[in-house]
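Lab notebook, design round three. We kept the backbone fixed and only want residue identities now. Task for the bench partner: fill in a sequence for the structure below.
Input structure tokens:
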């Protein structure tokens, strides 16, 4: 299995160092890289975007501390069949020989002018082709072929449509060495002429072909070059229902056509392939844009100074979703047709964070389709989707298989801490479960912690439920809110207990036991809200702790949930809300 093990970024934007270790960032799989705003996602993306064919190129503003002495660098370590570490910096680009690199990000910029109030949104034209390829005519003529080839013309099929398919021309280009030898070598030409001279001219086309013997066919195909041309072309869809004789007669036409064209221009087949791919790609992109263009504007490829571009004029008059999905589809298609190497790194910077449901589906469909095509063609691509929206909370990714990588780390191996063991071993469906009743929810009673829990934990674990409450409050107030090392699970328990404690003491005494006896924080708050006005902040914090306090025994799932908790707690506005909670 091919994976990226490590990505190291040095001296770019506001970061002197970003060092990321991965367990299974797999090739040809969707990889979601999740980190909060301010973490450095744009720094990583900028680093890869700055890699040009020979080295890194950055503006001084994008260098750490704007100091040219801080040398930018990107380093990636790959494991698997292609084990290697590659570096790009100001002196070199070691990716260039084997890897294509593509960054897709928000192409919208705000432009202002002296004669307008404020700024308007603008998208620079996306260049699909830097130069329009030379137009090349196929110049296949069925009537000319019947005159040129020395046999009864009626037995030849009209293969005009064969030359209209770009895949067929690509195949001819791939076997051009054997095609050229078949067309110009004396031995091959003699074989073809001997085969044709043995064909009679009497009868219908069908009867003539029926009299061409297997021995005659095998004798022609005994020549290795002609045989390779035959074997390759016979596999094409165009000849799926053709007989062996018809395919042989067709490749004789193709060889003759190649001879005539190559005599005029030895590079014609390469030029023809390039031109037909250009026409096909332009048509495909126009169809894709038309299919998903709901803007009411004619958005399609156009010619601009001998380049083929897609223009998005008046971007500020389109909805964000309409604009972003069309830009993404165009950028992705541009990379699809431009990926020339067998390996690639594709970075998508928060595009999916701002698409609505239907546009998300479209974008993810085409990305999945592209990855599948890479796999089919035995290419390796590492798709890295950067997001600040936690997939554990926001169900906005529909991929069949995806791997989530939380870039925030779990400090001090807290995923193996005592409280994690308690959560994993509790029974939330049992009304008498001690952990659920006295440790993970607020309870006014102070209870001795029983052996069913103390046998799971270390000797320094609190001995009473109130000692535990003091522990989680201290973790939240004295560590997390003071920017000290903290256990994220203890902080979230502290948040939940504080939420419930505030609601509990706002109730009249005769209503408090009903609050304690109600299961689940949301239901407790709803119970209390029947009698008092519950502050909105107590409801808003629920997504913060709900997932993190339900951990199963699977180590990887538990670790991911805890990383998700760290991601939420990393957010400075969230920290400010928690600070307000503990000040209430």
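Proposed sequence:
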């Amino acid at each position: 299995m091919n994976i990226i093990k490590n990505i190291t970024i040095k001296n770019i934007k506001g970061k002197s160092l970003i060092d990321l270790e991965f367990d299974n960032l797999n090739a040809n799989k969707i990889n979601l890289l999740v980190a909060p705003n301010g973490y450095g996602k744009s720094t990583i993306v900028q680093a890869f975007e700055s890699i040009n064919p020979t080295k890194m190129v950055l503006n001084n503003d994008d260098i750490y501390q704007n100091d040219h002495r801080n040398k930018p660098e990107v380093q990636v370590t790959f494991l698997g069949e292609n084990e290697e570490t590659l570096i790009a910096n100001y002196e070199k680009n070691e990716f260039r020989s084997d890897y294509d690199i593509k960054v897709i990000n928000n192409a919208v910029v705000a432009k202002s002018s002296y004669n307008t109030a404020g700024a308007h949104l603008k998208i620079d034209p996306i260049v699909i082709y830097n130069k329009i390829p030379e137009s090349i005519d196929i110049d296949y003529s069925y009537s000319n072929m019947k005159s040129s080839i020395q046999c009864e013309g009626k037995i030849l099929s009209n293969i005009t449509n064969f030359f209209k398919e770009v895949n067929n021309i690509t195949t001819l280009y791939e076997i051009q060495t054997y095609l050229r030898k078949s067309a110009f070598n004396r031995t091959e030409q003699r074989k073809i002429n001997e085969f044709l001279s043995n064909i009679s001219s009497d009868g219908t086309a069908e009867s003539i072909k029926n009299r061409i013997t297997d021995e005659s066919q095998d004798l022609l195909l005994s020549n290795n070059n002609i045989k390779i041309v035959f074997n390759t072309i016979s596999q094409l869809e165009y000849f799926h229902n053709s007989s062996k004789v018809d395919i042989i007669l067709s490749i004789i036409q193709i060889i003759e056509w190649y001879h005539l064209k190559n005599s005029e221009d030895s590079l014609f087949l390469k030029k023809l392939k390039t031109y037909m791919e250009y026409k096909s790609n332009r048509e495909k992109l126009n169809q894709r844009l038309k299919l998903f263009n709901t803007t009411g504007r004619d958005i399609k490829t156009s010619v601009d100074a001998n380049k083929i571009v897609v223009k998005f004029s008046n971007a500020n008059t389109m909805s964000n979703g309409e604009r972003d999905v069309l830009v993404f589809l165009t950028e992705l298609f541009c990379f699809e047709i431009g990926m020339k190497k067998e390996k690639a790194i594709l970075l998508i910077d928060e595009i999916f964070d701002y698409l609505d449901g239907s546009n998300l589906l479209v974008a993810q469909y085409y990305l999945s389709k592209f990855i599948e095509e890479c796999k089919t063609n035995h290419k390796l691509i590492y798709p890295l989707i950067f997001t600040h929206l936690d997939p554990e909370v926001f169900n906005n990714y529909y991929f069949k298989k995806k791997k989530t990588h939380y870039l925030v780390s779990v400090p001090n191996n807290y995923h193996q801490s005592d409280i994690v063991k308690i959560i994993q071993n509790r029974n939330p469906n049992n009304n008498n479960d001690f952990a659920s009743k006295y440790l993970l929810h607020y309870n006014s009673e102070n209870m001795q912690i029983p052996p069913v829990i103390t046998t799971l934990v270390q000797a320094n674990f609190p001995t009473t439920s109130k000692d535990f409450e003091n522990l989680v409050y201290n973790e939240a107030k004295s560590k997390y809110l003071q920017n000290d090392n903290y256990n994220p699970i203890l902080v979230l328990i502290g948040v939940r207990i504080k939420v419930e404690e505030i609601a509990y003491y706002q109730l009249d005494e005769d209503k408090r036991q009903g609050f304690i006896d109600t299961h689940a924080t949301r239901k407790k708050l709803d119970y209390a809200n029947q009698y008092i006005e519950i502050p909105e902040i107590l409801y808003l914090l629920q997504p913060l702790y709900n997932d993190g306090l339900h951990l199963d025994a699977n180590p990887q799932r538990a670790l991911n949930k805890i990383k998700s908790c760290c991601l939420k707690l990393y957010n400075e506005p969230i920290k400010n809300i928690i600070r307000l909670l503990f000040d209430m």
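Keep this in mind before ordering anything: The radius of gyration is 34 Å.
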